[in-house]
DNA sequence: GTCTATAGCTAGATAGAC
DNA sequence: GTCTATCTAGCTATAGAC
């Protein structure tokens, strides 16, 4: 039985979850190979520039996902803003697997090569803020307030994920998501 | 000129800042040796169980510092609670170097051996929450509300440190500290 | 496109001199 | 208590067969 080509989406998903869990330095090539079901050599075939390229790839994927899902939904004026808000929160819940997964944006922000990744990470934070700001504005919040509060959404979500990760208690994350609508439109 | 014994407090400080900046996996023994000004062998002389012991040591130090400074101040009823609150925020500002330093509690929560460190990390979060809860209660907030909001202090501070770290913009942290008094006693 | 095997290096950790 | 030198294991990365 010849080896089958492993689907790129499956590899991407495994790279995402492994970097999220272990961070850049903690995710060794050996671990990444086992997680994806590929050999190290096959990973280098797909990512000639190695681990750094893999991390940049998953961060680029994350930005695309946020643009195509969160931002697209959040700016779709054919939907009522209240519904968009719920959908946007649902997307965050999905991305962070209900608070059970460390946030890739945070785990890749510390350690070797972290500085190289920060522009990608900021892009993702900006997309999330952009989405929530659009919703808030359409709910009648003035633009300046909407911008401030949508940035705070990132702050609250990241803080809750730190605490959920350390305590293994997802309620920090769940409660934070639940409080966002009230906070955004207070 | 013989080699002088390096002061333990200086070593501790360097271990703290290096683990804070690079995380557990990113802080290699080579880097830790250079940061402390000791050889790797000398570090092993002081910490026979190696890097893991060093990380546990700095976390234990952090808990002692929080107890002896933040908690002690926060529970000192000879001081007006409003003053205690400002002192407690000053201590957080000092610990995190105005938002310029990654938080040790966060950087050690990801990567190899992270699970072993989480009990130490939780202890530190509990001490911070304990301090702010005591202050809030003495400012007239009921115990249950005080407990919830003091936990949120950790959430807000951690979230702001993630964003300040990624963007190199300390205002997330500074603004968060400034907002805590209003939030705690709203 | 996949793999095994391995190069070359750096990691954590240790031995033993001073 | 400090150091240099070194060990072994694991690391990133590559070579070359299929």
Write a concise synopsis of the structure shown:
Two copies of one chain form a homodimer. By secondary structure, the first copy, chain A, is mainly α. The first copy, chain A, contains nine helices and no strands.
How would you summarize the topology of this molecule?
The structure is a homodimer of 186-residue chains.
Chain A: H1 8-26, H2 29-36, H3 40-46, H4 51-74, H5 81-95, H6 104-107, H7 114-138, H8 143-167, H9 171-184
Helix pairs in contact in A: 1-2, 1-4, 4-5, 4-7, 5-7, 5-9, 7-8, 8-9
Chain A binds a DNA duplex (18 and 18 nucleotides) through α3.
Key terms:
homodimer; 186 residues; mainly alpha; 76% helix; DNA-binding
Structural class of chain A: mainly alpha
- Radius of gyration of chain A (CA) equals 18 Å
**Number of helical regions of chain A:** 9
How many strands, which pairing sense, and closed or not: the largest β-sheet of chain A? none
> Which band does the percent of strand residues of chain A land in?
under 5%
How many β strands of chain A by DSSP?
0
The most extensive contact between chains is: A-B, 35 and 35 residues
Shape of chain A: elongated
Percent helix among the residues of chain A? Answer: over 70%
Global mean pLDDT of chain A: 96
Secondary-structure element string of chain A: HHHHHHHHH
* Poorly predicted tracts of residues of chain A: none
């Amino acid at each position: 039985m010849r080896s089958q080509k492993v689907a790129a989406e499956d590899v991407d998903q495994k790279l995402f979850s492994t970097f999220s869990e272990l961070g850049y330095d903690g995710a060794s090539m050996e671990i990444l190979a086992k997680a994806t079901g590929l050999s190290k050599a096959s990973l280098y075939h797909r990512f000639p520039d190695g681990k750094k390229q893999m991390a940049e790839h998953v961060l680029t994927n994350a930005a695309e996902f946020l643009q195509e899902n969160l931002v697209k939904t959040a700016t779709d004026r054919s939907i009522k803003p209240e519904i968009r808000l719920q959908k946007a929160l649902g997307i965050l819940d999905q991305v962070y697997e209900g608070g059970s997964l460390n946030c890739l944006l945070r785990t890749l922000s510390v350690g070797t090569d972290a500085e190289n990744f920060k522009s990608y990470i900021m892009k993702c934070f900006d997309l999330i803020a952009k989405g929530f700001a659009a919703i808030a504005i359409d709910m009648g919040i003035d633009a300046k307030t909407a911008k401030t509060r949508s940035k705070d959404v990132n702050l609250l979500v990241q803080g809750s994920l730190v605490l959920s990760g350390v305590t293994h208690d997802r309620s920090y994350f769940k409660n934070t998501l639940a409080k966002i609508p009230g906070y955004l439109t207070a």
